[in-house]
Design goal:
The complex is a heterodimer.
Chain A lengths: L10 E10 L4 E8 L2 H6 L7 E6 L3 E6 L9 E7 L3 H7 L6 E8 L5 H4 L3 E7 L3 H13 L7 E7 L8 H6 L1 H6 L2 E7 L8 E2 L16 E6 L5 H10 L7 E4 L15 E4 L2 E4 H4 L2 E3 H5 L6
Parallel strand pairs in A: 7-8, 7-11, 8-9, 9-10, 11-12
Antiparallel strand pairs in A: 1-2, 1-6, 2-5, 3-4, 3-6, 12-15, 13-14
Chain B lengths: L1 E6 L3 H8 L4 E7 L5 E5 L25 E8 L4 E4 L7 E6 L1 H14 L6 H9 E6 L9 H4 L10 E6 L2 E6 L2 H9 L4 E2 L3 H17 L9 H7 L4 H9 L5 H4 L7 E7 L5 E8 L20 H13 L1 E2 L4 E2 L6 H4 L7 H9 L11
Parallel strand pairs in B: 2-6, 6-7, 7-8
Antiparallel strand pairs in B: 1-9, 1-10, 2-3, 4-5, 4-12, 8-9, 11-12, 13-14
Classes of the chains: A alpha/beta, B alpha+beta.
Chain lengths: ~280, ~350
């Protein structure tokens, strides 16, 4: 884990805390072992890292913490396959290999001086939590903020407790947190899909940047609702996922798009603008 | 550009001299029907007139399978393994193969340069050679039938030897160190070079350019052709393995038998395999054979902006080596509907 001129080199990170968010998702707090890396490593919300377990493999995972905290970062990992199942077995003190950060991330500079509307469905909350935490850490750079967090069931809402616990700070800071579920009869709060709550956001459609993350099938109807509500299509961003092996635009697994707009999601994305999405068959 | 002549009598000497710069690899006849790049043990086996090789030159820069790291499962350390990369000379590449390497350069030496590829690229001397097209070739439609850069030396066939173009500093050095076997280019040589180029141009089956194909492809996504043709596809991946610009790879961590150490290896992958778009949880981004079939047409016809060409260089390998007889070029022409296309000899 030394030669930094090799783009595939991994850096050792120690797990400091492992916390179960739902029955499938765990939140991991990590720190770089090498102090120089810890000192210099930074990322943009919306970027991802490759997480490696020797002998098992590597997986791309979105960073879900704010880049303001140096040397530490958080990953929310859903247990779905071979590597993520092994990661779920790790305990505080164990190590993993990390390389990255990769991808373009959200254009946070463009978000400045605007209101921010974040729309998450299911695991889509993971990259958007990074945007949200970054915006909270730099509160004075942004206007009103709304987070819409949605899932099928209440106990599947990622970061539900954390968002609930932020109620006071949210009120004081012009932040609106909306958590909604689609299929849970037991849920005492809001119901319906994320896009049905856009009208309740505290953001001004004429001066807002929107970040959306969720299952791609949901994107078209979210776009419709946003444009109907007057949001500027030029300021709507989504983040996509694909199978990725390299993260550096080579292995080809994440290639998507069409013959006029062929993209490696890992380096040209994963964040794309509204017009890229609607003019490129195959992207969502 | 610097031009020289290599007379027929000096060709064997030339091959001998260039093999002083590293192991020499060149196209050789390997069976009744096929040619392939092989290490040259006997200069008389080097083939100057061949149409295509069974494996593309990319294999010298992205080996079909190679080790990237060794790992220790107890400490969690990965240690880089570069392998044995020594100087070599790759002789006999056609223009399309050289453009293909430049496309790979654009991908593998982008803002995240691949060290394994870079080391092999640096170690390899590239010597190109002119060719005459067969019925599978359409590099002219791709505008890759001629190269100005990407080689150290390029040999153009003359009746009595070769006209040599020098394409790099290393090319100049090789020439300077061996001036005794080269001659000045004469007026006759220039006339003969022009004649060869004319003859070559007239042998291409089609004229025109495929530049607008990428738009038409997007607009004809629902054409019944995709159902018909993908139905024939066996999903074997020959088209991508023999493609000089297909560059997808997969990576696996293979533990050793002691359960403590292991190797991270990478090997060629193909978008024609079902596993290519499969993610944990069972979702597949290219679920059906038709999805995978179209993916290759889209990817190959997309524009590679740094070079201003498509990713397809028109070598014809995918058609030639397809066991199901799927004709890539014919399908593209069908999709484009051949408006204004003039086939040589059909008028």
């Amino acid at each position: 884990m030394e030669s930094s001129d090799n783009v595939y080199s991994l850096y050792k990170c120690r797990l400091l805390r492992v916390y179960s968010l739902t029955d499938e998702e765990k939140l991991f707090l990590l720190r770089f072992e090498d102090s120089d890396i810890a000192e210099s490593w930074s990322f943009i919300p919306g970027q991802f890292v490759q997480v490696a377990l020797p002998g098992v493999g590597e997986v791309p995972i979105s960073i879900c913490s704010s880049p303001m905290r140096r040397g530490f970062f958080e990953l929310c990992i859903k247990k779905v396959g071979k590597v993520t199942s092994m990661i779920h077995k790790l305990q505080p003190g164990d190590c993993v290999g990390i390389r990255g950060p990769y991808g373009n991330g959200f254009p946070m500079d463009e978000f400045e001086h605007s209101d921010i509307l974040l729309i998450a469905a299911g695991i889509g909350m993971v990259p958007l939590r990074s945007v949200f935490m970054y915006a909270v850490d730099n509160r004075w750079k942004f206007g009103n903020i709304t987070v819409i967090n949605s899932a099928r069931y209440g106990d599947k809402l990622l970061f539900r407790k954390e968002l609930e616990a932020m109620r006071d700070i949210a009120e004081a800071e012009n932040i609106k947190i909306i958590q909604t579920v689609t299929r849970d009869p037991e849920w005492p709060g809001r119901v319906g899909r994320a896009q049905e709550h856009i009208k309740d956001a505290n953001t001004d459609p004429k001066n807002s940047c929107v970040a959306v993350c969720g299952p791609p099938q949901a994107y078209r109807s979210i776009f419709e609702k946003l444009i109907e509500a007057g949001y500027d299509p030029n300021k709507i961003y989504v983040t996509l996922e694909r199978r990725m092996k390299c993260g550096v635009g080579k292995c080809g697994h994440c290639i998507a798009g069409s013959s006029t707009f062929l993209k490696y999601i890992c380096i040209d994305g994963p964040v794309f603008g509204y017009y890229d999405i609607i003019s490129t068959p195959g992207l969502i | 550009m610097r031009y020289l002549k290599l007379g027929s009598r000096n060709i064997d000497e030339f091959l001998g001299r260039i093999s002083n710069y590293g192991d020499l690899y060149a196209p050789q006849k390997i069976s009744e029907k096929f040619y392939d790049y092989r290490k040259v043990e006997d200069i008389s086996q080097v083939e100057f007139n061949y149409n295509r090789t069974i494996t593309p030159a990319k294999k010298y820069f992205i080996p079909p399978k190679h080790e990237m790291f060794e790992f220790d499962m107890e400490t969690g350390e990965y240690t880089e393994t570069m392998g044995d990369v020594k100087p070599f000379v790759l002789f006999g590449l056609h223009a399309c193969s050289i453009v293909a390497l430049r496309i790979l350069d654009g991908v593998y030496l982008n803002e995240y340069p691949d060290k394994y590829y870079a080391a092999r690229r640096k170690a390899g001397i590239i010597i190109g050679i002119s060719c005459l097209p067969d019925e599978y070739c359409f590099c002219n439609l791709r505008r890759t039938d001629f190269v100005d850069i990407g080689f150290d030396l390029f040999l153009h066939e003359l009746p009595d030897g070769y006209l040599i173009r020098v394409g790099s500093e290393r090319g100049h050095e090789i020439v300077d160190e061996n001036m005794d076997i080269f001659e000045e280019v004469s007026n006759d040589d220039i006339e003969n070079f022009k004649k060869f180029e004319k003859k070559r141009h007239e042998m291409f089956k089609y004229e025109g350019s495929f530049d607008n194909l990428r738009y038409i492809l997007e607009l004809t996504e629902n054409s019944p052709l995709w159902d018909e043709e993908s139905e024939k596809c066996l999903g074997c991946g020959n088209c991508t393995m023999t493609c000089p610009t297909c560059r997808c790879y997969d990576v696996q961590d293979l533990p050793d038998i002691d359960g403590k150490h292991g190797k991270r290896i990478r090997f060629w992958d193909s978008c024609q395999f079902r596993s290519h778009g499969l993610v944990a949880g069972g979702h597949n981004f290219r679920e059906t054979k038709k999805d995978r079939f179209i993916n290759r047409y889209v990817c190959k016809n997309a524009y590679f902006y740094p070079l201003g060409t498509s990713y397809c260089v028109g070598c014809g390998n995918c058609t030639y080596f397809c066991p199901a007889g799927i004709d890539f070029l014919k399908n593209l022409i069908k999709i484009r509907d051949v408006v204004g296309e003039v086939a040589h000899g059909e008028q």
